[in-house]
Amino acid sequence: MATRLAEVLQFSESDVGRVALVVTEATTNIARHAGRGEILLRRTTMDATADFELLALDNGPGMTNVAACMRDGFSTAGSSGDGMGAIARLSTTFDIFSAPGKGTALFSRISVRRERSLGSQLLWGAVGVPMLGGDVSGDGYAVDEAPGRSRILVVDGVGHGIHAFDAAQKAIGGFHRMSDEGPASLLRALDQDLRGTRGAAAVTVDISWPDREVRYAGVGNIAGMLLSPGEKGTGLVSHPGTLGQATGRVQEFTRRWPARALLVVHSDGLSSRWDLETYPGLSQRDPSLIAGVLYRDFHTRNDDVVVLVCRERDPRLKEAT
Questions:
Q1: Tally of domains within the chain
Q2: Per-residue confidence at 81, pLDDT binned at 50, 70, 90?
Q3: Domain span at 139
Q4: CATH code of the domain in which 137 resides
């Protein structure tokens, strides 16, 4: 499945081989050390770069010393001990979070073609998974970038299955089409677009980087939190209603984007009981890894789910490491 995904991205034969090795090592580690776990695969194409992403998630015993486990030759299971180091070397971006009793979450991104554009100021990652047994997800997300501006949308189509998926995709299409609209006016326009569909809940966020300003608006059961070190998080207010059905009140709010801020937005397929403070150091990791841990530990399992995590990109780095 992973190699087919890489071929869809038009990876070269050698890069398809990199993907195969990374997935093999990641799944072997889960089987050997945790017994069971989950592999999530995602493909993206942005700017001139195609990305293959892997999240390997387990609730096993975790690692006491991650740095030691990364060294070639180190093993607690009688193997050669080369797997973790091999994944890191084969990856364009690699990140890992593990602690005793917290399981292990591993993230690998393999990027090909040209360098990623440095014009984007938003570093983001996401997990989107249908409910158990579902073929498609009615939850979705979109990210749109322009010079000095980043926009995101998280949407949850009412119900499950193809009709919820269609509503979510229609909202995503409108989000990209109406890029000049602010959050509140965008949701009002999406309310009209979604007439005749199942309807959807949605939150949209608009970040102006020169002004360090965040504007957002929400309708329905989508949760969001703007976090900054040493401060209490700011919840994103979403008013009751359903786009395309009974929207109710749409109100836009404005906040300042704090230094080293982290934005987490998710559908109601994720419990709101998560607290990053219980995972020391996780908030500083790659957004995709954070999204993966939250999904692993707080997905309700009886609903579609989307988790989108964003932070400001460090302008000194070409790629998060």
A1: 2
A2: very low
A3: 122-312
A4: 3.60.40.10
Angle among Cα 80, 86, 88 to the nearest 5 degrees reads: 140
Which of 48, 79, 113 lies at the terminal end of a domain, its last residue?
113
pLDDT tens track for 264-320? 999 999 999 999 999 999 999 999 999 999 999 999 988 999 999 999 987 655 443
95 and 242, same domain (yes or no): no
Whether residues 158 and 59 share a domain: the answer is: no
- pLDDT tens per residue, range 114-150: 555 556 789 999 999 999 888 899 999 999 999 999 9
Domain boundary among 113, 134, 169: 113
- Residue 262, pLDDT above cutoff 80: yes
- 214 in any annotated domain: yes
Helix axes 183-193, 161-177, angle to 10 degrees: 130
CATH of the domain at 38: 3.30.565.10
- Contact predicate 237/265, CB 8 Å: no
